[in-house]
């Protein structure tokens, strides 16, 4: 990627990381929490420092769990009945790029404003708006390739082979989908599924529009901004890093050019005094000849 000049609003980092699926978490979750906090969702913390956001109707809940029982840093669940079991669940682990989580919570905020018919919209194969494979389209458009790693799994892999979206076929255990990586959708980066750089999962009934928001972010060709010294925030051995260029200066105006030239023009030196002959001048007498 060619270096891009930075702007004053774009300086939370000194390198661009490409491709973006080789970035990792920024470890600051505010950007992903803000879309839901802006809707007035209730925020509270437990004694360990975990944060919880709850929708006003109690039917969508987000946990930001740095002190959770596993590496599932972000857990988002939706409920048809606030006192019943989850209808769908999504998890991003502690290393997942924060921008991908933000894409999800931003889409969730939009769906929540539109009502339960949106944020509880069960995927329907063949539907124009709810087909689950709408989530795959952004990846296909960026050259990701289909694969069949096992009889019960379809996969689509990035051109560099370092990111994969898997779709499990057949019946799945509802509880396992919410509590483990054995979910319908499994998005991960790395060379070994058992030791990924980062991962995210989504259960069977997660709305297709929310899944698509994540894959659109993953497929975006724009690099992600990180600090070079924060090597935990990108895959150091694989990612391409491009330094951030300093902000470009504005082009000078004609008046600026005139002033600059005037400042560099040397001050005029007065001419030296030169004696001049006049009609009243007395010529000097010649000296004696030798």
TrEMBL record:
Residues 54-111, 157-224 form the DUF317 domain. It comes from the Bacteria. InterPro entries: DUF317_SPDY. Residues 263-290 are annotated as: Disordered. This is DUF317 domain-containing protein.
């Amino acid at each position: 990627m060619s270096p891009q000049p930075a702007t004053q609003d774009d300086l939370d980092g000194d390198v661009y990381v490409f491709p973006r699926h080789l970035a990792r978490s920024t470890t600051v979750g505010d950007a992903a929490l803000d879309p839901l906090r802006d809707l007035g969702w209730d925020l509270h913390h437990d004694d360990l420092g975990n944060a919880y956001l709850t929708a006003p109707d109690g039917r969508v809940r987000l946990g930001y769990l740095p002190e959770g029982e596993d590496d599932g840093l972000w857990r988002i669940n939706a409920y048809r009945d606030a006192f019943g079991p989850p209808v769908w669940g999504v998890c991003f682990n502690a290393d997942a790029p924060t921008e991908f989580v933000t894409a999800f919570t931003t889409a969730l905020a939009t769906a929540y404003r539109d009502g339960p018919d949106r944020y509880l919209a069960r995927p329907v194969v063949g539907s124009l708006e709810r087909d689950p494979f709408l989530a795959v389209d952004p990846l296909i458009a960026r050259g990701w390739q289909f694969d069949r790693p096992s009889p019960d799994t379809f996969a689509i892999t990035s051109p560099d082979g370092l990111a994969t979206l898997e779709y499990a076929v057949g019946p799945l255990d509802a509880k396992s989908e919410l509590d483990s990586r054995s979910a319908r959708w499994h998005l991960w980066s790395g060379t070994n599924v058992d030791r990924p750089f980062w991962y995210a999962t989504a259960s069977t009934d997660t709305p297709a529009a929310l899944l698509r928001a994540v894959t659109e972010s993953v497929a975006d060709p724009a690099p992600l901004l990180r600090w070079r010294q924060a090597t935990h925030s990108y895959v150091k051995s694989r990612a391409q890093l491009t330094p951030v260029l300093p902000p470009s200066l504005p082009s000078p105006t004609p008046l600026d050019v005139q002033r600059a030239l005037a400042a560099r023009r040397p001050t005029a030196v007065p001419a030296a005094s030169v004696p001049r002959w006049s009609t009243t001048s007395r010529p000097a007498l010649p000296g004696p000849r030798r």
